[in-house]
Amino acid sequence: MTYNFDTLALHAGQVPDETFGARATPIYLTTSFVFKDSDQAAALFNMERAGHVYSRISNPTNAVLEERIAALEGGVGAIAVASGQAAMHLAIATLMGAGSHIVASRSLYGGSHNLLDYTLPRFGITTTFVDPRDLDAWRAAIRPETRLLFGETLGNPGLDVLDIPRVAALAHEHGLPLMVDSTFTTPWLMRPFDHGADLIFHSATKFLGGHGIAIGGLLVDGGSFDWEASGGKFPTLTEPYEGFHGMDFSEESTVAAFLLRARREGLRDFGACMSPMTAFQLLQGVETLPLRMERHIANTRLAVAHLAKHEAVAGVGYPELKNHPDHALAQKLLPRGAGSVFSFDLKGGRAAGRKFIEALRVFSHLANVGDAKSLVIHPASTTHFRMSDAALVAAGIHPGTIRLSIGLEDAGDLIEDLNRGLAAAAKA
Amino acid sequence: MQIDINGQAAYAYTGGKPFDAGLPCVVFIHGAQNDHSVWSLQSRWFAHHGFAVLAVDLPGHGRSAGKPLPSVEDLADWIELLLERVGAGDTAKTVSLVGHSMGSLTALECASRHPARIARIALIGTAVPMPVSDVLLGPAKDNEPKAISMINGWSHSPRGTVGGNTVPGMWMLGAARRLMERQKPGVLHNDLAACNAYSHGMEAAAALACPALVVSGSRDMMTHPKAAAKLAAAIKDVRSVSLDGAGHALMAEQPDAVLDALRGFIV
What is the ipTM of this complex? Predict the structure, then answer.
């Protein structure tokens, strides 16, 4: 028998500990693990036996979190790292080196955009950004040296819904994998592997944790992509690696070559590991993910409906609304909901935005999303304050754009708080 | 390692070291709808401890070309041909066969048909006969995803179903499913039908001329431990090991225990 999502969210990856019977996942706050004898030590280093050696490479608490997210996503395994950014970097560094190229959606989180557009070119990896809705643009951007297609399940800031089945099919046509950032959707809203994606990463800091107390990232491998069939595009996975016993990772593991290399090289050498304490904290969040996501979506739908008909609001961008460009796609890929982070435009511009924010009492004004608590930010006066109104519009943001991350509070209190802000904005 | 067998490319993983026919040889034979990678830990250990290792991809599976062979007898003869091609056991009985599930039937039949090279056999997750009901054979023919789900559910113990993989970060059920999904269409039904049709295993066991090891999981629903015990009782020189709490996917659920059982037997 196999278990369903809600059961896996609580149990996958952990059986009660055999020594003391602890029901909760123990926090193995240790850097290293004692070898039973010299033979076992050698066997662990040479991958003849499985187990833990040093917590930069693996740790029992982290392993529970890794298994759990892999189970929820329907993957073969995962690696827990220090942040979502570390997960993205680990994936890219495992797949390619200098001279390689990525095709990415232009609707990305700013941190991801920075890595691709400014930082990685210094290391010889370049990216072409495309309109995620334009399949021809994806196709036209693919070059012989392309090694990855990348997008977010729900793009930033307009919640463009990535057409994973079509983009994945295009990627596979060219012998390339598709990686998606699934932070905004979590596996409860969508399991990208079921639609053709090959790699997933999460900023676990957001909805997976939910509590807003721990920074962490998770990189999940779907195990379906055939690295060897890609005509030599991925030598890190299909040729012997002198840095690790001359191992050919694809020979070693048919379905987990990527994870093997990522852990044995990426964690070993780049070292962006997750603390076991963080893994424990994130596990506490994942246990209630189904319950929380259900509430996030219910509250979001109420807030969206309220704002969409409010006279102080110029427009709401949420894929469940019929006027959103990806409404039909969202109905198909995101039937449980299109996330709980969305933007709306106030009629009054920058001044209205400031007044709105300042009047709120329940929403917290900060630069994060996916918390159990409702959050708000006004890009024109914070993250994008240096940009002119014209430049903002070019970036898909208006002077009166407000981004909300709807939390788990009482829906009536949230609506009342929004009304408080809207009333203040109307007077600006 | 690529080997030409009757004009077809066959692949065998050699455990991370070049194959040396002068060393005692251990051949690992996977089960239905699997490939060599189910043995990665155990095969690496033997390759790095004085043995020449061949963890094969049976014809039509994994990296080996051709169609899957239709019977256990054909698979047994293919193993013999493989050994002949690489020169293993040519001068003395130095070959050990280690088989899981369908691979265990292959090992048993190979030792029975070609006793000259085979020093010992290890049968892991085994039962003789190995009947496969229409409940599974039907979907294996007409609806492979359904059959794979059934096999995945039945192949893991209650503990394995929850996880707790000794390989850090690997989700056992997900990896097992993907590996089965990687095989070509038609392989699954072929393999299960071959297991179902293998009818003279008990005779082969009774006539076995070499020592045998039978390793069974106490929670194995695919090849019940009682069936493994019945097989063991038919073999003259046999050692039996029961892995407490393990399901049919023993190498994934209890890799160290499987290795330790093999280490004590293949010397």
Answer: 0.96
